[in-house]
Amino acid sequence: MATDELTRDEFLRYSRHLLIPEIGLAGQKKLKRSSALILGTGGLGSPVSMYLAAAGVGHIGIVDYDVVDESNLQRQIVHGQAAIGMLKVESAKNRLLDINPHIKVTAFNEPFTSANAMRIARGFDIIVDCTDNFPTRYLSNDVAVILGIPNVYGSIYRFDGQVSVFGMPDGPCYRCVFPEPPPPGLVPTCSDGGVLGVLPGIIGSLQANEAIKVLLGIGEIASGKLLLLDALSFSFDTVTIRKNPNCKVCGTNPEIFELIDYDQFCGVPGFDHQPSVEREFVISPVQLKNELASIRPPLLIDVREPHELEISNIEGAINIPLHDIFVEREHIPRDHPVVLFCKRGSRSVMALNILLKAGFSNIRHLDGGINRWVEQFDQSQPVY
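^ thats the sequence. predicted structure below, dont judge the formating
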């Protein structure tokens, strides 16, 4: 039997596809022969992977390097309570094979980097970018262009989402639209800014829809279009985007022929950790507790958003949100020790760097943020 022949069970499983003229038996066989690499098994990767598995895409690759945490379950529906502490790729693989035992799932429990990206992606028909950071986003784009395969892009933040398909013949790539990454700290992550739980379901489903159309070669692909969703106002906008002849990776005279270390290029971490800081500008919760009890305690500045203060706080801290830190710098004493903190440390590092460039010296940030402080010294407050 040919590898794309359907079994009796598969005829029943995919019967609703077989009834659609644009898919039919030939299309379902094509899906069975197809392969898709999904970068990330989080909010976007959950619906994408589940729907592609259910649709019968024959080989699905999933890339992640994290473990399932309770904070994931509000939106990462491929994982459940029983999977907490499990490798995300293993949890996702188990779920996908439970959805459809007729497919093959390859799990890559490793970060997607310039060192391994080509090895991982080579042989797949399409990349579906479900990542949440700029280094991997630029990297996945360049890999897709070099390999000559489409890249289905999605992004989410709070109530806003975006979808497009990059790397199609004569279509733009991600770099055509966003030639350079934004300055570090300009765009907060979902872990710092939040995301509506259902939003990745909407955007991820649209990504899965585009991936299936691309694999089947049907319909009007979202190449040359960027869909913008504002879920709070229930508005959809489509922006026309064009291939840039001067693009560094897909233009007429490209400059990029091999993968770049985007972790350094973008100035933001490609993985889930805060940027490195000189130790003299870092203070641990234990050190802070001791200094707060001293004769000359430091001034505490909470750089979180005001609504986060309802969740947890450190007594005596003043609130200057990160986006106001440069404007408010003149109200911060230069002759007194200052300690900055946020939820986990990423925003306080950004604030620290802003103030260091402004000439401050007697200033540090709290390692691990208020979450680590709460874990060690104030468990009456929640970790979030």
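DSSP finds 14 helices and 13 strands in the chain.
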